[in-house]
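**User:** I keep going back and forth on a fold encoding question. It is easy to fool oneself when nobody else works the same problem. Could you pick a protein and write out its sequence and tokenised fold? Could you put it straight underneath, so I can go through it closely?

**Assistant:**
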Amino acid sequence: MFESGRGAGEIVAAEGLTQISDTSAIEQAARDVIAKNPENVAKFKRGNEGVFKFFVGQVMKLRGVRLIRRL
């Protein structure tokens, strides 16, 4: 901000740092990840709860890690 003279809002927008709070966008990303990873879905259904972290990571990767975690 000091170097560029830009405001915080402008920097956040320019760098793509805004959070995604639209639950429909998050849900669609989750559906896409699930559809592309049937083997991990099977593991989860068999009781491997650790694979859930994989799904969360993939959704965050897909959406650019801008999700609001409390959703």
Summary: The mean pLDDT is 82. The radius of gyration is 16 Å. The CA atoms of residues 6 and 53 lie 37 Å apart. Residues 23-36 form the longest helix (14 residues).
